[in-house]
Amino acid sequence: MLMQLCALAGVICDVTLFPLDTLKTRLQSQHGFFQSGGFRYLYKGIGPVVLGSAPSAAIFFITYEGIKQYSQPNIPNQYHSIIHMIAASSSEITACLIRVPVEVIKQRKQALLSDSHRLRLRTLYRGYGSTVLRDLPFGVIQMPLWEHFKFYWTQQIQRDCTPMEGATCGAASVAISAAITTPLDVAKTRIMLSSTSAEKEEVKISIMLKDVYRDHGFKGLFAGFFPRVTGFTMGGFIFFGVYEQAREFCLSYLS
């Protein structure tokens, strides 16, 4: 049941906040905001997201919880943050196998590129390396922060977090992670929207960051910052709220 609710939460977040994601993609696009669609067709590309967000969210939390539950009982408390980082990293790499093709199709549709229906399998994984390089630090920051915020809060109030409090901790951790990793997201978006061959993608992420900084400066590296952080914060609150509520229900049901 926990897996199904995580999947449902992922779909709800992605569909509800999709217009913000579209605006972010267009702000980051090398083709320019208005040439990529501006404020028009904000739900362009929603189809692949509906199909891909559920399995991606489910796989992430199955992997994360599986590694955490298997490892934590055998590890001293002071090393639990390391377990959270390892679990988050493994979860991101696994989820990206589904997330990347969905992102490629979605972002090319969002930017109104006409070739999104003719992409080959190899092209669908353009940006896998850059997505992993974005999502690994995102997950490594987000999940330990979430666990730390919850631990700190339980120490202050001397009881377990409620689902609402867990959701607030999740939203805060997601906001910080999204803000820090925005330059990597800019590079990933431009790689996915690029028309060059997929084989060069792994080499291009550092070059892409340098090119963006050279052409647009610091501001370019943080293009789409506001819609990205806003969307992720709202999505984090919804997702972690559903997750905490489902986890609490499952634990009470099993006990």
From TrEMBL:
Solcar repeats lie at residues 1-70, 79-152, 161-249. It is a multi-pass membrane protein. The keyword Nucleus does not apply. InterPro entries: MCP_dom_sf, MCP_transmembrane. PROSITE patterns: SOLCAR. It is found in: Membrane. Pfam families: Mito_carr. One of its GO terms (cellular component) is membrane. Keywords: Membrane, Repeat, Transmembrane, Transmembrane helix, Transport. The keyword Zinc-finger does not apply. SUPFAM superfamilies: Mitochondrial carrier. Belongs to the mitochondrial carrier (TC 2.A.29) family. This is S-adenosylmethionine mitochondrial carrier protein. It comes from Atta colombica.
